[in-house]
Design brief:
The chain is 37% helix and 15% strand. By secondary structure, it is an alpha/beta fold. Strands 3-2-1-4-5-6 form a six-stranded parallel beta sheet, sandwiched between helices. A three-stranded antiparallel beta sheet has the order 7-8-9, covered by helices on one side. A two-stranded antiparallel ribbon has the order 10-11. The chain starts with a helix and ends with a helix.
């Protein structure tokens, strides 16, 4: 697929420099590229991909790749020239690394005083943990975001990277960069975006914390409105598949009971009696375990019972709803989700081509030296 044919144009005219890093920073840059920004990723010269990552990573889709040695004077000069022609830069190192290279915010603001300098870390640019190593699960554990990840009595565990690296990290970096660019374009000058996973993942908790104001959230796991009830969890089916249930509103709960054949069962009459939730959960677990997932999908098809299968990505790609919307695509043998969100003025959602490391080095250099 030709990248130019697939490009979104919502952020056309925005140029972003990405310094190669791990996880959330390159994901944020991919999202900006998905939305139409011209993202130039600076890969390490003669460097290898991070452990476990492919030579040609889908998070480099839609980007231009140039290889530079940021310890070499000539290559640093190239980066500085790129900065003068860009509105934003994103990096994902520990605090102080870019400063030691002479490429920190103060250094690069001399090249471009309107530069939005996006910094992606787990612990943030300051604080007692700022200089210590960590990973996604550590950050969301300290922020409180992992506390409700799992049923009561089980060890908390979030879906790897989704809550921390992506939700609390990359998406907040994208929002911060775009806010900074808007401010710079309004004449307010550049800014440094301190996007920390502990900040973002804690901020995401505010929807749950709103429930605490009405007593719907307990600090005890398994006793809150969304993590304790029998009507808000996943159940295992006879074939080992899983089904999700979350019929919060009474009218949806009533539809759920009707479809299950339990409308007249006194054991399920009290939807919000927390004292009954453990027994109700056990009863439902036994019922769901008698039939396959496909059976339960048929039972709840087209209903408002708020029941849906729990799918892996390959299964999700084959789901009729997901297939209709073209959410998952296989391009060049790589299964990947299409750009999101969608815009009424943008007809296509196809993923752009994946950049090879260093693929655009010469063309970018030619462009920089053309003037």
């Amino acid at each position: 697929m030709d990248a130019a044919q697939a490009r979104n144009t919502m952020l056309e005219g925005l140029r972003v420099i990405e310094i190669e890093a791990l996880g959330p920073a390159p994901f944020a840059a991919m999202m900006l590229a998905d939305l139409g920004a011209d993202v130039i990723v600076v890969h390490r010269k003669n460097g290898a991909p991070a452990p476990g990552m492919p030579e040609r990573s889908l998070i480099d889709r839609g980007k231009r790749s140039i290889e530079l040695d940021l310890k070499a004077a000539d290559d640093i000069a190239v980066l500085r020239k790129l900065v003068t022609r860009s509105e934003a830069l994103v990096e994902g190192f520990r605090p102080g690394v870019m400063e030691r290279l002479g490429l920190g915010p103060d250094d690069l603001s001399k090249c471009n005083p309107d530069l939005v300098y996006g910094r992606m870390t787990g612990w943030g640019q300051s604080g007692p943990r700022a200089q210590t190593a960590g990973h996604d699960l550590n950050y969301v554990s300290v922020s409180g975001a992992a506390w409700y990840a799992g049923n009561a009595g089980e060890t908390p565990f979030t879906p790897p990277t989704l809550v921390g690296d992506i939700g609390g990290g990359a998406l907040y970096l994208v929002a911060g960069v775009l806010a900074g660019v808007m401010a710079a374009r309004a004449g307010r000058g550049g800014t440094v975006v301190d996007a920390a996973i502990v900040d973002g993942s804690a901020h995401m908790m505010n929807l749950l914390m709103a429930l605490a104001q009405t007593g719907g959230l307990s600090m005890d796991r398994g006793k809150s409105l969304l993590d304790g009830p029998h009507w808000s969890r996943c159940y295992v089916c006879a074939d080992g598949g899983y089904i999700s249930v979350q019929c919060l509103e009474p009218k949806f709960y009533a539809e759920f009971l009707t479809r299950m054949g339990l409308a007249d069962e006194p054991d399920f009459a009290a939807q919000f009696d927390a004292a009954r939730w453990p027994r109700q959960t056990a009863l439902l677990a036994g019922i769901f375990a008698r039939q396959t997932r496909s059976h339960w999908e048929e039972v709840f098809a087209g209903s408002d019972a708020c029941v849906a299968p729990t799918l892996d990505p390959a299964e999700s790609a084959a789901d009729p709803h997901m297939a209709y919307r073209g959410v998952w695509q296989t391009i060049g043998g790589v299964l990947q989700a299409a750009p999101a969100p969608r815009f009424s003025t943008e007809p296509g959602l196809n993923s752009a081509a994946i950049a090879q490391r260093g693929e655009h080095t010469q063309s970018v250099l030619d462009w920089l030296n053309a003037d």
